[in-house]
Each structure stands twice: as structure tokens, then as C-alpha cells.
Fold each of these.
Amino acid sequence: MRKKAIDAFVRNEREAKLVHWADLLAERFAQRAAKHDREGSFPFENFEELKAAGYAKLTLAQEQGGDGVSLYEWLLVQERIARGDGSTALSAGWHGGMMLHYRETDIWPEPGFSNFCRDVACSGAMINKFASERATGSPTRGGRPQTTAVRVEGGWKLSGRKTYSTLSPLLTDYIVSAGIEHSPEVGDFIIRLGSEADEPTYASGSPFDADGTFLPELEEIASRAQTSRQRAAELRAAAGVTLEETWDTLGMRATGSHDIVLDGVFVPDEQVMGIYTPGQSKGGVDDGDGWMLHIPACYLGIAYAARDYALNFAKNYTPNSLKEPIATLPHIRQWIGQIDSELRLARTALYDIADRWDRLPDERAIMRPEFGWVKYNATHLAAQVVDKAMKIVGGASLSKSVPLERYYRDVRAGLHNPPMEDAVLQSLARTALDE
């Protein structure tokens, strides 16, 4: 089969193994995507398959039991998973990105980080940071969290509400930001509801194993999914954490980004990641937050799926007013050309900056503005690609039986993921004016 000219970012055999592995997962996720989108339900089965395939440990360092993939390699995976299900790719990306971030920055104190990495490698544990609140808006705006940390013997008690808590139905480990009581300081606290001893342990694969694409039977995946759902619910109840199912949105409906309510949740001193004065550096190595490129990778994956659907439709649909498929029509070919131009532009920018992040660690901090414009352009171009794909397919693209209408809704969520558009443009303007 001839390699797609548009998909020329796989550079070697190792990356070819990664994308083959991710494509197989994406195919399974695509079969469930419409159901979870329609219900607004969380795809526990997808995450059990990710764990079984070894996804959770992809970005762990090899010495921590992981595969030690680079940013570039990981983005190849994220984009392909999004072609199957954007919600799953975006949700899983927060875990994968944070493990890459903490691997490179040394912000998470030891031995806590190594202990968590061991759980990731052995049982597929996953994590996210819950920082958003209704009163503060996006955490990138710098608002002080209303969630409060109160000093008690041996640690802290946290109370408050976090919004947009992606992965919340699944997770038993998360990082929570909170304001320190009677102090201007803010802390990051690691909440671990369970322990390694009570966490189910299953054998996991790797994209680099000879049988790295092996997955358990669907019945076994369903059983594991039910176990994970029940375990998370029981541990939340025991710790004083309530999950309120508030996530009912236009797009990205299966990310499980509900509200989490903390009621005096205890965090021991050894699970405090850090306490800072607002504006103060958190220490460690500044990696420029390159890990957040998983966001544009996700939306470009959705756009790519729309492109493939529209191409297949154009090559095979012949209305009775024509003697050949609509792919022969000049205006259809014009839209197809624009789609491929926009995708190539956005994907070239994404993989170029990821490659530089991997090769030039000393320059990562000064790449931050570039990460912003890559995301800005990728999300806008991805939306344009999906719009054109729907024009090619016509009115049928609005049908719930066709994935394009889901792609249309999902891809627009990218406009509301960080970094925020106005901040990116202000940064670019500031850089230009300071020349």
C-alpha cells in the first residue's frame, strides 16, 4: 500500500511501530465513539485498553519502567488516537503529558514521584491536575483558587470545588491546587485515594514488544472497566471526594470533565508538591510546557479523520446527475486541495517544534511563545478542515449516523483549551514590538 504523501512525519522503524500500535487502538475506540458521545458517558473500556496496551507508561523514563518516548513520538500517538476518538485522546493526553513534564522538570519531589511511576508501570495508574474553578476561570489567567488548604497535624485538609476535571470518573490520583488558609500562598497537593496494594494489576504490553498490539478480549475489557468504575467510586466516597456529573457539552462529550468536590480531604506532608507565592517560579527545570502540544495534536487528529471520511465519500459517491464520482468535480477537488494544504501546514509546524524541543533541551523555555501559536493555528485550521469536509459530503454530514457532525462539534472545543487565544496573540505582538 502506498504511503500517504500527507502523512510523511513517521521518520523511522521505531515511530512506525508506535503509529501502527496507536492505529489499532484508534480503530477500537472509533467503534464506541458515537455511543459515548450520544450518552455523554465516560469510555472506561477505552482506558482499560490503553492500560493493557501500555499507554500509561509511554512517557515514563525507561529507568522508571516506562518506554521513555520523546515528545515527537508521543504526539504521533496522540494524533492517531484522536482519529478514532477525540475525547479519549484529549483525556489521556493530560496524563501522558504530565508524566513527560515531571520526567523533564524534577518538580515532583522524591520519593513520591518514583513511587507513583512504579504504580503507573505496574498497574497503569493515571493522573491529572485539577486547577480550574468557576470563580477563577482558566488557571492560565492567574486567579487564586477558592479551594482552601488548612494546616493540620501531619499534613493538610483540602476543601473546595474543581471544574473541568477531565478523567474524574476514572482517576484515584490527582494533583489539586489550593490557596493556603490565612496566607497569600498557593499549593499543589497530590491526592492519592488508593494504594498500590489495593490496585488491580494486569500485564501490560508495549508498542515495542513483539506482541505489543495484543489486547484482551472485549469481555475481559468490560469486566476491568466495571472494576475501575466501582473502585474509583468507593475510594472517592471513603476520602470525602464527590463527583458531580456536570459535564454536558456541545463537543468532547466523553472526557468526563465533571466537577470534583473536596470535603476535608487529607493530604499528608509528603504529598505536597510545592507551596508558592503567586508569580514565583515553582523550581525545577523550565521545559516551556511543550507537553501541552498534545492539545493541537488531538484536534489535528480529528481534522484528519474528517479529511479521510470526505475523501472516501468523494471517491465513491456518484449522484444520478453525474457519470463519475464527485471527486472529479473542480470545486470538490478545490476543497480537497485546501484541506490537505491546511493540514500539512499545521502538522508541519507541530512536528517541527516538537523535534526542536527534543533536540534542544536548553532552549525549551524560550520556545513557549511558539507552542502557543502552533496551538492557535492548529485549532483554527482544524476547524476549517472539518467545515470543508462537511461541504464535500453535503447535507448528509449533519446526520447523527455520520461522524462528521461529531468531528464538527469536537474540533471547536480546541478554541477553549489553553493557551488562550488572546494571550497567544498578545505574546506574539509583544515579541514583534520588542524587536
Amino acid sequence: MPHQGLIPERIIVRGAARGSALLHLTGETTYSAEREDFANRAAQTVGDMVATIPGVTVLQGNGPRDSVVSVRGSGARQSYGLKNLQITEDGFPMTQPDGTARADLIDPHAYEGVDVFQGPASTLYGNYAINGAINFRTRNGADIHGLELGSDFGSFGLFNNYMTIGAGNKRYDFMLFGSDVRGKGFTANSQYDTSTENMRLRVNLTSSDRLILKFVNNVTDTSLPLRLSLNQFRSNPYQNGCANAASVAAGCASVNLLVNGAYGVRQTMTPQQAGLGRFDRRTIVGLRWEHDFDPRTTWHTQFTYDQRHVDQPTSTTAFVGPFNSYNVQTDLTNRGRIGKTPLTSFVGASFDYMDYGYRVYNLTPQGGATRGALNSTSYGHQWNIGIRFQEDWQFSPLWHAVIGLGGTQSDIGAIETLYNRSANSTTLQNITANRRFFNLAPEASLVYTPTKDWTLHTRVGTAYATPGYSSFFVTPQGTYGNNTQLKSETSLGFDLGAEWHPSPSINIQATGFYEFYRNELVSQSAGVNTPAGSYTFNAPASEHRGIELAATWQPLRASLPGARLKLSYTYDNQIYTKYTETLSNSTIARNFSRKGNLIPGVMPHFLDARVLYDQPDGWLQGLGGFAEMTWRSSFYLDNANILKAPSYALLNLEVHYDPPERLGWVHRLHSYFEVQNVTNQVYAAGATDISDTLLSTGQQAGRSILANETGSIYAGSPRAFFGGVRLKF
């Protein structure tokens, strides 16, 4: 029995007895966020779900919910999506075979929580799990038990109307979620409308057989501003007065479009005039069969179909095409014994395949993203076939030992056709990429629990990621062409961590990591007026090292039980240990060693601290709120470590009310109000890496020149006010 006036301890049971080892990784550094961490606020993107998880950073991608999520800095150098991670939802894959996952699908209102497995994770997750995996957990229908209707509204024309239906018993569990989010955006040409449907149905066919059906659909229709140079960001972060190229204000970004859509003279256009945007659809359908051979042995087999169709006039060109993916997974988990000691054995196999065919058109100055001549086409496939096993032996009540091995054969076959046009002729150039990769990933970990207050773990893990098809066809100049020499990147990582909860009011989790990379795949922007924008190269050797810390504390558990402090901090130091970059101009080329330089795009320090309070009893029961401070340090944008994105600190305030049951029907109404960026800071919410350049003198360009290189920065939101209500029936 809890003491009178204290908040009862919340115990979460996740049914590990039947769960796959893919969702319950022993020995790997794991941090989680639960619904209580993000449900009582204006949770618009995945960034709001993972804000309290150390080691995870979120940058703004290309669109309202296209968050660039990075674990330990691994994906921070991308301009969109979730890279170098394997993403699952309720155990179904959300990452396509080319390593692409996007956060457009994620409306936080649909989820119960998220688990982040940090560090090299290819042993169990295969290709692209170079720095971990993330599993999103949707809400259980039995917990919803009815109908919930909700609306969020606020600054910059935000409206999110959503609905959740849930029901369940011992035979089935059903959850259906739908939302429509629209807004004007705080930057010129960033208005959007995105709709999402998410469904999960579990049916217990017999006492030993279960079927799980999963469906996700998202349609994104968003206008898109251009990424800015540092100088443009400083002078005009929200692109005010930039609608007409003939009379723009200072600091406006623009694109230069071919007047005839094929060759020759170009005309300067603003994003509004050109009609830049993204008009994409993503549909995922999955079915899993779970069979218990006996109480200790469970077999999972699932099939997932994933179609991504893109129409993206994002710069001087429009990228259009379908990407069809198929994924089959099967695994067996046995919870047996060696003598009297528990042994959990896992073995699995997977095969995924993607075929694609995209076309790139030049944009014309006619407006409305009007397509001109065909710039290039690419058709191809990628498949990955893998097997993996893991043994988790609890050889004493205090010790777990884990070993595992996974391997993946990957095949990429693609051909790109370039159309080179002039007034007299059109010539075609074909570039072929036929690459096959084989990678192995062993791992071992040791978990020691000397007392109920301490858990210690150490781990050595490995991972790999093959180049994506698109990176083979973009040159360092940002044009479509031959870049087929790319290699797989691999990593070897060491973790040492501890979790300590000396009392019910204190919990501390800390991890140190040191990871060695070979042929790290790094992307850089070549500018907004290049057809492809970003290109990829291999850095031969690099090292990532850092510290992650998460802590919660109830300082006055007896006298003020509703008060809590929550802290998450990460130190992330990443350097090149072997990399020589070649810079060239029209007359000369020079080599520059980047050994010892910080890898651009990675924030060395980031901190999230919250002071929370929820009134546990009395006539104000259910009233709560928090004050949050988020700090991000400055970080370099280029390999020469010349130009930095500025640091920033944000203050957010929130208050919410969940009426107690004694108030009758009023108990069904939840409401909140939030102020984000209270001090109205101007900050860079997204900043991709830029290329260093070589002057005619043979010297690297300095800060004053790099600060004018476009294609990097998106500004974050100014001060914003949001409110919301949710009614349960």
C-alpha cells in the first residue's frame, strides 16, 4: 500500500513472455519514453516524443513532420528522414530496404510509447542499424475502451483534428486512429496539410495462435521553403518579403530555373513562384502470425507491404516516382534452461526487396511546379537477405551473458540515364550500378545486477550500412552522375552503462560509448541551385565517443509528491581519424587532411531539463504542468571546421487539466495550454552540412564565403501558443 498522499508507483507490464527478442534487447543500451511524457502537450512530431531521451537529437527535415532523427549523431548529417536506424512500429518494419524511413507517418497522439535501442544493432536488425533501432508502440484498444475525439489549435494556423477508437478483451484488441493536421507555417511557403490513418488488430485465434494486422497510411501535401545560408538565416530567418523575385527583401532564398525547361537561360524564382513542395503518399500493410509451440517457445512470421510514392519539386528539379517494398520475417524464441539457469535462444531470418523507378524533371518558371524536360531517370532494385541468432544466458541470479551473430547479403542493381540537352541535340548517358555486399555483425554483452538498486552492463556491438541506390548517382558537384565507387560503412562500438535507483524518488541511467567507424557515409549539400542538392562520400576512418545521462527525481516525495525533475543530457564527440578531402576549382586541385577535425552536423552537447508538477489530490487534483529548458550547443557545418551553426536555448511552458473521476462526465474532458519558445529565440532547427570550396589562390574559402553557401538551414519556430482538448466517450 502506498503511503497516504503519495502517488502510487506505476508498473508497466509488456508481455515479454511472448514477445520477440527484437523488441526486448538484453544488454543493449535502451531508453524509453511513455505516453505521460508527451501526451499533455502540443505533440506535433516525433521530436516531441523523444525530447526526454538522451542520445537522440531531432532536426527539421523537408516538411512539417519530416523530422531528421539521429541516435548518437549517426543520422544528423542527413537533410531528411530517419537514416542509419532501423525503425519498427509494433514490431513491423517502417524502414524500406534502401534504409529510408520518414517521420511523416508519426502523429504522437496515436502512441503509447517509444523504445530506443542505442549503439550498433545489426546483429538483430540487419542492414542500416548502424547506430541503433527505434520501436514505436501504438496504444492498446483495451486501454482506450471507447472513442476519443480531440483537437489541437494554435499559432500559425495549426489545426489537428484527430480520433481514436479502441476496444479489447481476451479474444481481440483493436485500435484505430485518424488525424488531419494543417497549418500556414511560420516560414513563407510552408503551409501544409497531412492526414494519417493507423490501425492495429490482434485476434487470438486459439490459446496458442494469434494474428496481428497492421495498417498505416499517410498523405503529405506541403509547400516547401528553401534551406538558407547562414547569412540568409541571420538576416531573414522566416523569409518575410520574399514572395516576388522582382522585389525581394534582403536575405531571400531563390532558385534559378531553365526558361525553356531544357537548357540555356535561367530565370530567378522564389519558392512561392516556383511552387516548391512535397506531395507524397505512404501506405504500409502488415500481417503477423504468432504461434506458441509450448509455453516457452514462440514462432513469429510476418509479411509487410510498403509503398512510397513521391512527387517532390524541391529545388530546380522535381523528383517523381514509386518505391514498392516487400518484407518477410520469421523468428523463433525459446525460453529454456541449462540445468537450473534460464537460457533464452533466438534465431531469425528476413528478406526484403524494393523495386523503384523515378524520373527527375527540370522545373520551369511558369509556376505551380510546372515540369519541363526530363533531366534523368533511374530504375532498379535492392534486396537484403539476412539470418541472425542470439543467446541470453542468465548463468546466475546476478548475471546475464549475451552473445549473437547476424549476417546480411545485399544486392543493389540500378541504371541511371542522364539527358544532356542543347539547342542542337540531346545526348544520353547511361550509368550502371551493380553492387553486392556481404556483412557480418557479432555482438556480446554482460549484465550484472548486484542489488535491486543497481544494474550494470557492458557491451561490444557491430553494425553496417550499405550505400543507398540514390547516393550512387550524385556527384560531389550536386549533379546527377557517377558516384558508384561507394563502400559499406561499418562500426565497432563499446558501451559501459549503469542504472541506479537508490530510492523510490531517484532514478539515474548513464552510459559511456566509444565507437570506431570505417568508411563512414557522410552527406553534404552542394547548394539549392544544384539538381540533386546533396551528395555522399566515404570517410575512411572516424571515431564517435560520448556520454548519455537520464535522471528523474522527486525531491519532496512526502510533502510535495506531485513535483518531479527530469533531465536528459548527451555529450557527443565525433572526429575524423583518417580522411583526406580533395577540393578543386577550374584550374587546380588540392588535398586537405581532415584528421582530428570534428565531423560536421553533430551537436557536441544537448540538454533537456523539465520541472513537472501534477496535483495528486484535493480540489485541484488533475491540474499539472511543466517548465522545460532545451539547450543545443553550436556545431560545425563543414569538414574544415570553419563555419558553425549557432547554439540556442529554448524555454517552453505547459499547463494541463485531467479532472478526477469524482467530477462525473467532466472527467472525460482533458485540456492543455502551452507556450513554446517563450523568449522568442531565433534558432536553427535544421542545418545540413555544406561543402568547403577552393579559392583561385589555392586556399580554402573562409567563413565569410562559406556563410553565403545555401542549402543548409531551416529556422525554428518563433514564440508560439497552442491549446487542445480531448473528449472521451
Amino acid sequence: MATLLYSLGRAAFRRRGLFLAGWLLLIALVGGGMATFGSHLDSEATIPGSQSQKGIDILEKALPSSTGVTAQIVFRAPEGSTVNDPAYRSAIERTVAAAGKAPQVETAVDPFEAKSVSADRRTALAQVLYPIKRDALRDSSVEALEHIAFQARSSGLRAEVGGTIYSSAGLEVGIGEVIGLVVAVVVLIITFGSLLAAGLPLLTAVIGLVAGLLGLLLVSNIATVSSTAPSLALMVGLAVGIDYALLILSRHRTQLASGMDAEESAARATGTAGSAVVFAGLTVIVALSGLTVVGIPFLSVMGLAAAGTVLMAVLVAITLLPALLGFAGTRLRPRPGSRADRRERETGSGRRWNGGARWARLVTRRPLVTVVAVVIGLGVMAVPAAQLSLAMPDNGTAAPESTQRKAYDMISDAFGPGRNGRLLVLVQTADADPKAAATEVAKGIGDLRLPEVLSISAPQAGTDGRTAIVTVVPKAGPRAEETVRLVRDIRAATPDLGTAADAEVLVTGSTAAAIDVSDLLSDSLVPFAAIVVGLALLLLLLVFRSIVVPVKAAVGFLLSVGAAFGAVVAVFQWGWLADQLGVPTTGPVFSFMPIVLMAVLFGLAMDYEVFLVSRMREEYVHTGRHGQSVIAGSRHASRVVTAAALIMFAVFASFVTAEDLTLKPIALGLAVGIVVDAFVVRMTLVPAVLALVGNGAWWLPRWLDRLLPNLDMEGTKLDPPRQEAERRPVRALS
């Protein structure tokens, strides 16, 4: 591996113009494709095999209006007035009539005819139906409906628009992300002491990210790409793109400071640090691709999209960065006598102990104490995770100032929270009258006397002569545990209800679908973790040729993810620091959060494992001294791991400022997880564990050693042959 990447790095350095032109041509091609075809992001989330999805598929043919996009226009009269007052009623009727003629609208239902007026007569709710899916709804149609609805405000009414016409925020970049980039630049300047050196990782990361995101958006024209996929791809791709370039550039600068030729240094940095980047990136890609095992297309696309940007980050780091190093030439060599020059020389030669080496000596002085303290501390941080509660997002999680959130709150206040999360009970018969069968099912549900039910509607017949639906309005909101229990109670009774009515009965609708997603994700966590961790352990076994190192890496990851989950629960469910972090409401977090966070954090945790332990392994292979290799590896890698972790933290923390609560908890969990994993697990627990096991850290059964290919990530084949007499005896860590 090192030899191959060494040759690639040398070729990129020598033919730098060709490599740069190739990347610019790639961006031009995908950019031109985007300009020609645009993008087609899909906010639809399907759950193959679930009861709710089966019901939705049936209703799409039998009663399309029940599964199409809906909007809600909520009107509220001023204090002391009612919506029945002539002036207000006239304004509402004019608005509803205009809404019925709005672009792409099928019909608008008058709230007075539908009896959708609150008990205090101050609030009226009009339904607007679109006979299309959300991805077919144009933004201009939503804006047109909002304009019509807001005109009612001129009469003194309060008017807001909600419903399924609104989806997640998708790809939005705001001031928070800009601040994250600024922090990354500051960290890079401090790390390298040079504007040129600091700019290269950022430049390569942006080029890789642009190519990856444009490619993803272009692919959305021929494949289903979820609207949240670009957000995750942006967050992960930016973080790893900077970090991978940082690792290679740091090795290059150290070698330049020691007097190495620029071309040879670029090739060697690509061969050694580039090997670590390839395998680190591969673990991230494996972890993100593992999201496909869940069986939810929406989630699979998110994982594959983010994996694609990580792949681009790796390719940029090992091809474009060496080319840019060729353009920079010796200008990246620290100025003789400068602070950066002294720091790089000391790091390369090991003549002095830097902060990383001193910390490693401290935590390995009494390694058992360190291990126990870390495990107990992270265990305490993980305690809140036991109360993790999951649900799908809805308009109740939108930004408080948005019209959909205001409409959601107005409906909850006037009609009860359950009006925002109605359940559809589908009744399908073979020969019998579906409306009569649905009436019998509705009566059966009423006879169950479920305390969570607020009301049960009269049946509505479909167009196929075999289908009807009954609408059940819960007392609690769509994300409440009471509503989850209600869905399960009705489903438990559907076999008997179906037998009595001689029909098939399914509980479906968006609320039931959200519950099915949460259940499927919960059931998938263990197999997902087993597959992803198993594949990553195999990769680490190949890289480090050790049994202890992969197992230790996995255990450390579990500690990090437990602490990250604990932080998410404390903020988003318990409300700790909620105001400071801009969390408008507490409650269950996004159902996809645990599995997405696990995938991303595992991949990034393995990045640090590879960055740090590869330097320890490299020292051990070259010197045969285990104790010194732990200290030396920490000395060499501490600065780059610290910088990488701070950059990733800044990038992820910047996304905590996003308004959409689907991304906020993932960003917070990743920010906390990165800090814990880098500084507590990798730079503290790892040296302590390696010190405890001694030379056994690099033990591998002989039969397994013969079976595994030698990937030579340490770059031993790049060095002149070493005589055994030059090796000193292995010494235990003092």
C-alpha cells in the first residue's frame, strides 16, 4: 500500500498541472450537468414491509386524497371575537375559495362546511388538498398558498399555514457553518504557523466537497436522493476532507524541516500518512454504507451520499494535495529558526518532549488507574442515554418563528395535540360493502374504550369499491408515547376487528408510519452495529496486525457513543442548556439520530485510532521498542490529532445552530463524541491500555500472521534495509 501511494504521490507532484486540470475538469463536468438538469431531491420516506407502508400503497390507488400532500390554513379571530362574525367569516371564505384555485391544488375544504371550528369559536381550520407527492410540489406553489393565506391578515385575523407541504430544512448553510470554517482556519494557522500551509487543507476539502455534492445533486435526477442527504454529506465531507489533508500535510512539513527534498517528502508523506488516510477513510465509508442494512431507502441514501463525499475526500487527499504540494515547492518548508521550524524539527527528531509526549507519559505512569478513571467518567456521562426516546420530526419540531410551527401550535391549542397526528384505519373487503365494514370497525374501536382516543370519524369510502378509511384522532400529539401506545393497542385488536367485519384492517397514515420507522430503527441497531463494527475490526486487524488494537478500538468507540447519546438526551429531552443551544422544544429526538450518529462517529473514531496507533506501530516496527513507541507515537501524532479533533468539533458544533431539529441532535452528538473520543479515549485511554498489555499489544497468532496480507502501512519498504544489529532490545514502558 505504502509503495503504491508513494508512486502516486510522486506522479502527482511531477505532473501537478495534469492532476489539477483533471479535478477542475471533473468539477466543470458535474457543475455543467447540474446547470443543465438541476436536482430532484425527495422528501418522501418509505418503509418497505411495514403495515403503514402497505396501507399507504393501497390508499394511493383507492383514495389518493388521503395520501397526497395536504396544507392547513389556520385562522384565529382576535380576543373577544369569533370566526363566525360576518367580517371574519367572509374573509375566511374568500381565502379558502382563492386557495382552491391556487397552483397544483385539487380542492380546499371550507372549515364551516366541514365543522372544523374550535369549541370557543375563535379558530377555524381549512384543509387544502394536493393530488401529488411532496417531491412533485413546487416551491412556488407553497409560496402562492402562503401569499393567499396571509392576505386574510388584513381583515384582522391571524392566519398561518401548516401541513405536509413542509418538509425538513434540507441543505442550508448559514452563519453557524461559516463560523465553523473560520474556527477551522484559525486552528490550521496555529497548527502550521503559515497561511499557505493552513489554506491547503481547506482548499482541497472544499474542492472534494464541491465535486461530491454536485455529483450527488446530479445523481438525484436518475435515483432517489432524500432532501436531508446533502446536509449529512456536507457536514461529514467537510470535516474529514480537512482532516485527511491535515494529516498528510503535517507529515510533509515535518520531513521538509528535517531537510528532505520537496518531491521525495511529498511522495513519502503520501505513502505513509496517505496509507493512514486511505484506511481511515475506508472505515468511515464502511460505517456509513452499513446504514443500508436497516432496509429504509431514505436512510440508505443518506449513508451512501455521505460515504460518497468521504471517498472524494480520500481521493483528493492522495491525488490533488500532492499536486498542490508540487506547486508550493519549498515554500512550505518552515523558515529556518522560526517557531514552526523548531517545532517540526523537535517533532521529527524527538529531541524534546512535546505536550502529547508529556501527556502520554503521565497517563501511562499508572495505566490501570487511568483506565479505571476513564471508564467510570464516561460511564457517568452515558447515564442519561438510558432514557433516550425517539420519534420522527413533524411541524412541531420546526423553528418557532416559522409559519408551519405557528400553525401546529395553534391547532394543538384549539383542537388538541392529536389533531396534528391523526391515524388512518384502512378497511379493505373482498366482496362486502367497505363502508358498512368500516362502520363496524369504527364501532369496534370505540368499544375498546381506549383512553388515548379523542374522536373517531365516520367512514370515508374509496373509489375502488373495496376500500374505506376511518380517522382516529388521538388525545396526545404525534410524537407522544400515548399515541405510540394507541397505535399498538389498535393494531393488537385489528385481527379480531377484521374477522368481525370480514375485512383486512390496517393502521396507517403519517403518524403510524413514523412509529413504524422508529420501531424498525430500534430493531436494526444491534445487527447494524455488529456488521459495521465487525467489518471495521477486520480492517484494523489488517492494518495493525494485532488482536488487542482492534478490540480496544471497538470498546473505546462504545464509550464515546454512550457519552454522545447522554449529551443528546440531557439537552434535547431534559432541557439542559436548551436555551443556550437554541433548542425551542424538548421531547423525543429524531429517530434516525442513534444509527446515523453511530455510523458517522464510528468512522471518525477509527480515523483517530488509525492516525494515532499507526504512528505507534510505525515506531515499533522501526525500533522494536514497545514502551518508547507508545510515547513516540503520541509525540508525533498528538498535534495533528488535536488539530483534527478541534476542526471536526468546530464543523459539527456549527451545525448545532441549524434551525431544523432533525440535524441539531446529530450535530451535537457528533461534536461531543468527537471531543470525548479524541482527547479522552484515543489520547488517554489508548496509551494506558497499550502500556498495560505491553508487547502483547502487537501480538498476532502465527497462523493468522501467515494468512493476512502485509499491507505495509508503516512504509518499511520505502526505507533502506535495516540490519537486525541496528535494532535495540525491546524494553518495557517505564
